[in-house]
Amino acid sequence: MVPGAGEPGLACVPWAGIMVLAAAGAVLALVAAPFALPLSEAATAWLGAGGSGAGVDRLGDAGVAGLGLLAALGITLSRRSPIGEERARWASGLVAAAAAAVAFVVASGLKNVVREIRPCSELGLSACPPLNDYSWPSNHTAVAVALAVAVVIASPRLWLRLLAGLLLVMVLASRVASGAHWVHDVACGVALGALASFVVLAAVNAVSVAVGRRRAAGEAL
């Protein structure tokens, strides 16, 4: 449920933008899946990950951690802002950040159902997770996207948004270049992270709108 003008609900949520991001990830996954092996070969060769996959992979971990810190910073700055419109963002940002946990749980569950082998195993790279640590979808990507959405929602500050975008790109590139994921894994992670954000935000927003309307009706009596 998306609130109308003057209705209670979460503030400053780019509903259409989140769904466009989810759709873009899904379309990219469909396009990339038939070319999974050559794309991964090209990506790992480009950054030389065949000999340094673990080092490249750590960039993804650092990117997710950085996005978490940016989301926390954006929420804190909005909560303390003297500007009413910006202050209203903090609750929406907090809900969006919580969606990252949902994205992680769903992605981890899907991995154990699909059980896709990672490209580093297929390509024989030295740095590769165990065979029972499956590939599809990328939970690093799903979490990173949800956190990036939280940053955008929580703060209107351009420098925060740009930094979040750079960290997100670093996560996406590192997951493919390290051989940890196929391109379609990462693309599906984008779709999953955006979809998790939308569903969690919409659910909390629906509750907020219903509670606000009930309160307004009670005050009118």
Write the element-wise H/E pattern from the N-terminal end onward.
HHHHHHHHH
**Helix- and strand-based class?**
mainly alpha
Rounded to the nearest angstrom, the distance between the terminal CA atoms is 25 Å
What percent strand?
under 5%
Taking all Cα atoms into account, the compactness measure Rg is 19 Å
Membrane topology: Multi-pass membrane protein
Protein name: Phosphatase PAP2 family protein
Subcellular location: Cell membrane
GO molecular function, one term: hydrolase activity
Explain what this protein looks like in three dimensions.
This protein has about 220 residues and is an all-alpha fold. The protein has a domain at about 55-205. The protein has 9 helices and no strands. It has helices at about 15-30, 35-45, 50-80, 85, 90-115, 120-125, 140-155, 160-175, 185-220. Helix 7 (about 140-155) packs across helix 9 (about 185-220). It is elongated, with a radius of gyration of 19 Å. The protein starts with 14 loop residues before the first helix and ends with a helix.
Question: Which structural traits does this protein have?
Answer:
221 residues; mainly alpha; single chain; Phosphatase PAP2 family protein
